[in-house]
Amino acid sequence: MTTTSSRAAPSQATLAAIRFGYGLSPDQPAPRGPAALLDQLKGPDTAAQQFPVPDTALFLTHLNAMKTAQRARRQKEPGAEEAVKTATGDLSRTWLAGMRGQMARAAFSDQGFRERLAFFWCDHFTVVSKTGPTLLGPDAFAEDAIRPHLATTFPQMLRAAVTHPAMLLYLDQNRSVGPQSKFGLKRHVGLNENLGRELMELHTLGVGAPYTQTDVRQLAKLLTGLGFNSQQGFVFHPNWAQPGAETVLGKRYGGETPAKLSDIYDALDDIALNPATAHHLAHKLAVHFVSDSPDPAFVAHIAQRYSATKGDLPATYAALLEHPAAWAPRREKTRQPWDFLAASLRAMAPPADLVARLDDKKTRQFIRNPLTAMGQRYQSPNGPNGWAEDARAWITPQALSDRINWSMRMSSFLERYLPDPRVFLHTALGDAASPALITAAARASNKREGNGLILASADFNRR
Amino acid sequence: MADDLTKDSPAQRLLSRRLFLRGSALIGCSAAAWPMMSPVTFAAAPGDERLVVIILRGAMDGLDVVRPIGDPDYARYRKDSLTGGETGPALTDFYALHPALSDLMPLWHARELGFAHAVATPYRDKRSHFDGQDILEAGTGLDVPQPQVRDGWLNRMLQAVPDLHSNTAYAVGRDEMKVIEGAAPVMSWAPNTQLRLSDQSQRLLEQVYAEDPLFHAASQEAIAISAKLESEKSGRSMRMSAAPKSEGAQLGAFTAGRLREETRIASFSLSGWDTHHNQRSVLSGRLRELSATLLALKSGLGPVWGKTTVLAMTEFGRTARENGTTGTDHGTGGALIMAGGAIKGGKVYGRWPGLSDANLFEQRDLMPTADVRAYAAWAMRGMFGFDKTLLETKVFPRLDMGNDPRIIA
């Protein structure tokens, strides 16, 4: 759609930066191709070290502090009101600092493919904070369940995701108890299907796969026992587990007393390596990075590698990157608002600590509020299926208006770093700028509008 | 309105140009080109009736919203842990309303609020929110693979409106609204959005977007709507009171504003109905939001409320039994909420299937006794006079509308 006969195809390096990273930067060379992208995953996670984000320990500390303060308030203890206020303020400040850290990583890392993969997998395993005290859950989840596993295997990532306290909270697994378990009988509590269902539908097999309501129910029973506490994090409670074996997709798991966590892991491993999971994940990768309607042969190529390597993730990414479809010159996808903000900052290239130094008010003003307006409320998709992929879902009149507004006004935030639009055109888009944009950028009435035009352009918003 | 715009303003230029593009190159519709906007066609299509479809995303628990307290099995399934021990206002001898919707009781008594119980789409068994919503919005049966569905059922209805113009239909809010999107033109906007561009930037941006149909169409619409809202605001001065706070009330108020002008069909969604845990508190919150939304629509519409039908639909219901965590899991049969001065309210429509184990769907969910699409179809027929065959073939392919429930006054 974006290419016309008059336009030359962008180079592979340009596409590598835009399609598989957070875009071009004047301070960093673009990755030259598949090998350079995969190399980013081999070394240490440098951006994580440079820009800290709340981890699971911090999440649990704040969760604990909030719960303690709220309990004291319910019991009307003296000073409790003040304590809740303090804990809430601490929590909110920590969360906004985390937002700055996440944005700085996306905008300034020299491992853009790693950052994009982190976003992809966090979205695949969507976790949303449903209540105030769990606000740091999505950061903690990203930090400890996803990032360490970006270059391991999918079965390993699945275990980490399914047992992370933030996931257990979000999909209610921390409350799901076998109705006939010791704890269930004593407390008259029981099963919650939420995680069991979404695990099959969204995290692994995909909704079109041949599983049934009975499989969902059986898996929900098998998953009983998964829980956490604020001291240790994830814990397995054998006395919560539904007694007896469960049959999931025709295979029996568990049945011993006391119940064993390893039975749950065995089931997760089998589901992770099911051919339906291979296809589902391959399709999602192709859709997220390349096309809203990817060529079935492209998807099959990725799925095949996934299965052949038992879910080895770098091998799976290699299959994605080595296929010619990954490098189609037509840029079909649109940057999601998070991607758009990160790419804008990256191309503007202010000092890397500019984002980290924003105060809380400016963090809301320049990051959180614009994301909401563009349709991507920070860390808050509507459901566990995460964000939409379809370009049309993002480029609506109302959301595009807010992209344009932000593009034209981000100058107050970056005033001192505004480049000449003709130069910026090259740093932001390299050889991917259209002749129409080149002409228009030169005609803008001032620097601010010229740069705004580039950021608002379809060229910049597509990848 | 267009005739309020200053003559030869850039906005007006764009408005007509946009309509031209929409009608010809961009949409490529097979029907006759959409007519150019003129003051004459403004007030016309499609008649004077208004239809609002609200999608309640996440599966609203119909059994808790319209409570069948007269069913001997109800109390067995729904204990105080879920209901809070408060029955809620009586609708009939058999049904009571969730207490969080009490503010709507005056509408019920005025016959401007009604329900249909034990309804569902044709979707069964897998109980996926996302498939469920896709099917609800596509309005198809299970015989059509969802990726092939390009138009929502409201859009297919629009395609049958003869003198459709660009403002006839509106998708409101920031959620994608598949139910109303498709080949027929639909405006799309969110409350509080305002595009701010200098004339020069606007001209340059148009050139930049010219090659990309998606960006081109979205930006042209944004420019036109912003200009229109701006002109309405100045024309109306202080008529609007302070902006309402809650999201739903904002959606309701904005939608009412459009419907008071030339818009006739609108749709938006309210999310957060997935009550796996702590249903008592979560559902109450969502229902208060829905109540505020409907009341904002009513007050914003003024006299036009009398010509309005609101249908609030959800992808499926929830389990009859409470789950182990003071909530309910995904189910099947649910409830349809209807409001507006155009409906024959004060009644709970539908055949009640009963809640005994044998009567539940798969021994767990409320058994659907009617297709929720049939109610939507009868509403369209009652309001706009659409041909039944058209509704059963084009709007809702292969639907059997059954007998007329006579929901439109």
Features:
heterodimer, A: about 475 residues, mainly alpha, 4 domains, two-stranded antiparallel ribbon, globular, disordered N terminus, B: alpha/beta, Alkaline Phosphatase, subunit A, 2 domains, nine-stranded mixed sheet, 11 strands, DUF1800 (chain A)
Characterise this structure.
The complex is a heterodimer of chains A (463) and B (409). By secondary structure, chain A is mainly alpha-helical. Chain A folds into four domains: 12-31 and 334-371 and 383-461, no CATH class; 39-168, no CATH class; 171-272, no CATH class; 275-322, no CATH class. Chain A contains 26 helices and four strands. Chain A has helices at residues 12-20, 34-39, 46-50, 56-74, 80-108, 112-124, 137-146, 154-162, 165-170, 182-187, 194-203, 213-222, 261-272, 275-289, 296-308, 313-322, 337-348, 353-356, 360-373, 391-394, 397-409, 411-414, 421-429, 435-443, 447-456, 458-461, and strands spanning 226-229, 233-236, 245-248, 251-254. Chain A is globular. Chain B folds into two domains: 1-35 and 197-242, no CATH class; 47-192 and 246-395, Alkaline Phosphatase, subunit A (3-Layer(aba) Sandwich). Chain B has helices at residues 10-26, 39-42, 62-65, 74-77, 80-83, 105-109, 129-138, 153-159, 199-209, 213-236, 247-260, 279-301, 372-384, 388-395; strands at residues 50-57, 66-67, 96-97, 113-120, 169-172, 187-189, 265-271, 308-314, 334-339, 348-349, 370-371. In chain B, the strands form two sheets. In chain B, strands 1, 4, 5, 6, 7, 8, 9, 10 and 11 form a nine-stranded mixed beta sheet that branches. In chain B, strands 2-3 form a two-stranded antiparallel ribbon. The longest helix of chain B is centred in the middle third of the chain and has 24 residues, at 213-236. Chain B is globular, with a radius of gyration of 22 Å. Chain A: Pfam families: DUF1800.
